[in-house]
Input
Amino acid sequence: MRSKSPACRVREKVGSRHPFMPTTSSFERIDTARQRIKRFLMGKQTSSIGPVIALLAAALSTFLWFQPPPEGAPPEMMRVAAVVIVAISLWATSVFPEYFTAIIFFFLAMVLTDTDASTVFSGFHSAAVWMIFGGLIIGASVQETGFGKTLASVLLRIFPRSYLGILFGITVVAAALGFIIPSNTGRIVIMMPIFMALGDQVGFGSGSRGRAGLALAVAAGSVYPGLAVLPAAVPNLSWLGAVESIHGIKVTYAEYLIANFPPIGITSIVAIPLICRFLFPDKIGTGTTDIEAAKTSAAQTRLIMVLTAALGLWLTDFVHGISPAWIALGAALFCMLPRIGMVPTSLMVGKVSYAPWFFVAGVIGMGGLVAQAGLGNYLSSILFETVPLTKGYDFLNFAIISAVGMAMSIVTTVPGQPAIMTSLATDIAAATGWPLMTVLMTQPLSWAMALFAYQFPPIILAAHLGGVSMRRVAHLLLAMCALAWFVMLPLQYLWWAMLDFFG
Output
């Protein structure tokens, strides 16, 4: 038997009180500290950084709240800025759940500012919020009836039998639906339960990286290519309305598509599967060679009829003028009808999470608050004064305008950004020497530069329906923002130069 070392004998005799020998707990603390440092250096330690950022933001907000507004600014601007900084910092750091931060925003906005309730709570009578509510019910119906599983078994016979192949299939389907379904939220609502069922078929269980990859491919494929198709997303329609009301310009479907789809749409379709595969590596299960046979039921048949009717109404909204949100709400109503519905009315209690509902309402309310207080216009003017535009430096001007648009979307969210940037377009055109239409067309690229989940409410809904954590969503958004800056921006500049957009 090997004899014990002197150090071991000393430890046995005096235990943890030896003055020169670290105790077991000391070793554990040292190891824990090393692990924490390692996680921090690898970008995995956010639990302590988030609260620190939130506290600093709260201190800044307190300082701003007591400051007088700049000359010529609305009297409420500094108080609104204080509330907005708190909300953005909490959403960006995820110190609290997103819905809880929304409730904090509602409280602070009503107590600390003189803004009327109709502006603060404007999100609750927004079509986007009710689109989400309808989407939650439809998604639950797809799951409850087993329709998602049935359709997934069919799709598995079509898609390539690999993780990357399925990601490409999802992205292409989502992008194609952007040409026929006018709402990215509607596309997510229809697709997410189907492809989550497909994930079950290939062995991607809850919380797995592969399941996160599929869900975020649905989210990104429904959002980013749609930014380049005029009726396919809310920001596009907000932009179109602002362009017509402020400048009296009517933009055609073809003009918008030609300017934006090659650099934004095609690039995102190719990149999204690769990004999801890289960020969330996984392999399909070994036992998926045998595809489960598709099974139908009476409930599934009724659901198909409801979804077909909803899809038909979405496709013909230019004829009847009914908002996609009210169509989704009507579909949800049919899904819950007693006896003939596909899900029980008790689904409303306990089985449906209203977290994304409150969150999106808060985001929309914040955008309305910022617009009413004139905060966005003031910040954009400061940014353009800090980094001025100069005639003849087209690429630099293009990058500056994109950066300002990106900054504005952080304050106002992506759907709210067009109202501010469109109002500044005339001044930007004069500073750059570009045609007004070129300046207006720079906005879609800045939407693709979103950094935080709250800027894109549909992505929040997708994450909820797919069971994806906000940390994984943040990784995707960071990658897509980098793609927009380093790939889409140079490609769009070169594409526009070929088309002589800069004059």
Remarks:
- The radius of gyration is 26 Å.
- Residues 26 and 32 are 10 Å apart (CA to CA).
- The chain has three domains: 49-115, 125-354, 356-498.
- The chain has 25 helices and no strands.
